[in-house]
Amino acid sequence: MPYTPDLVHELNTLIRFDLATSQQGIKVHKTADPDVIAATRRLHAKGLLTQADGGYLTGLGRDAAEHAQAMLTILTSSASSSSVLLRDLA
Q1: pTM
Q2: How far is CA 37 from CA 11, 34, 43, 70, in A?
């Protein structure tokens, strides 16, 4: 199953969290992009966020955010690093 636009918005929301601390959340205001508002509400409904307008990551949300941020790091790394990673997976 490919990433849908809704999933991409959810991933983009998850990467906004600072994983260095559990004391910092996010607040999505009613004037934010409607896609961001909807993604935040979906993440809350899935049990990844404590509030429908953001809040803090739940335990599951933290796991998802860690994976989302790791994936972004891997996919945006330099080509030489990617070829080493791909070679190691082969």
Answers
A1: 0.82
A2: 13, 5, 10, 24
Structure tokens given for 26: 């996010």
Where are the strands (E) in 1-90, listed by range? 26-27, 49-51, 54-57
Q: Which two tokens stand for residue 49?
A: 């966020």
Compute the distance between CA of residue 30 and CA of residue 86 in angstroms, rounded to an integer: 42
Question: Percent of the chain beyond pLDDT 70?
Answer: 87
Confidence of residue 78 (pLDDT cuts 50, 70, 90): confident
Task: Give yes or no for a contact between 50 and 58, defined as CB atoms under 8 angstroms apart.
Answer: yes
Residue 66 burial class via C-beta count within 10 angstroms: exposed 0-12, middle 13-18, buried 19 and up: middle
- What number of other Cβ atoms are within 10 A of residue 73's Cβ? 11
